[in-house]
Specification:
mainly beta, Metal Binding Protein, Guanine Nucleotide Exchange Factor, Chain A, six-stranded antiparallel beta sheet, three-stranded antiparallel beta sheet, globular
């Protein structure tokens, strides 16, 4: 996958302040505040920073956590990175194309995959279309 050759100044100009804080500085949006939490349109969820297709709408479910959740990503779209911040051990997920922070993945999902990819809405754009 081709990477996105931008430095942090370029990212800061390309993104909104909130997107930059979350995507590039590994922030978290407030729970139950994201624009895509209750989105139910058919389509593909894309990285808001670089447009990389990340998740299909049929993988989305309501986890009750306050963030959009998915049970699987599009193959090769995200990378998992160990995250030992905040006194706990978790797996961060980043966009495989641009390296932007998206959220975390947990092994407590209710579907057959057992995964819960917990995303920040501000990191995503929904490209509508297709079947759910």
């Amino acid at each position: 996958m081709k990477s996105v050759p931008k430095n942090e100044q370029e990212w800061q100009k390309a993104l909104t302040p909130e997107q930059y804080r979350v995507l590039r500085k590994k922030g978290t949006e407030a729970p139950f505040s994201g624009k895509l939490l209750h989105a139910d349109k058919n389509g593909t969820y894309m990285c808001a920073a670089c447009g990389n297709p990340l998740f299909k709408s049929d993988a989305k479910f309501d986890s009750g956590t306050g963030w959009p959740s998915f049970d699987q990503s599009i193959q090769g779209a995200v990378r998992q990175v160990p995250d030992n911040s905040l006194g706990s051990s978790r797996m961060e997920i980043v966009c495989a194309r641009c390296g932007s922070h998206l959220g975390h993945v947990f092994d407590d999902g209710p579907t057959k995959t057992g995964k819960r990819f917990c995303l920040n809405s501000v990191c995503l754009d929904l490209e509508a279309g297709g079947q759910r």
